[in-house]
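**Sequence, structure tokens**
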Amino acid sequence: MTISGYFAPIKKDEREFIARACETEKHVTILVLDPKVFFIKLLQKELDGLPVRLETGDKPKGTFLSHTPASSLFDLKDAGEISLKAIMKNNRLIKKLIKPMMNEKRYRHSVSVAETAKILAESHGFDPKRAYRAGLLHDILKKYTEEENDAILTRYADSHLSAPPQIKHAYTAPYFLKEVCHYDDEQVLNAIYHHSDGESEDILAKILYIADKREPLRKLNDGILEASIADLEEGYALLRKNVERYLEEKYGVTGVH
């Protein structure tokens, strides 16, 4: 039996279907369509323990489960045959990488966060290129559904399965960047991981947290960005208090997310 799909990442009902097929069929082949947009390593782990053969192709065969690609993630034709590892070291190419994964508003936000992070980095002696890169990448999985993010969390960080849906992308992005994009800058990954909860004392994490919450397109002219440029620790502390107060007033909860 052949089962075709995009599987990026595999959904719960898809895995259950494949598992049932393995119980009734002698041979089950998973045909991955358009593998350039597919979490190959993640799927291999999700199918671990099932007697299936993995193949790649561009035309559906047999039972077709997934009807649309997850994104045109690696549609970088003008970049030639450049490796993903090389792309992740080039901010110009990273902008090409993320744009198909976001709507226009999210993309503009990401670029604005990157530019704000760069300003903060320059003000406090941190590498502006790496700060800019963190800004570009921080929302790379924002468009993914809760189910898709949960598939990654289940494998790598199940303690965050109960996190609010709107911040799960922060916890899944580093695993995506490691597994799919071969990105290994741990300081940048840590900053992305904590850009929603603000729970890291690392300088880049603070820079990204502030940049995300106070980039100019948000139009929150409360002086926190200016304070952060002058004194990162003071601006960070002010922002944490501001966010905590907002959450308590709007949702009646304590803690910063």
In short: Residues 62 and 188 are 42 Å apart (CA to CA). Strands lie at 2-5, 28-33, 52-57, 63-64.
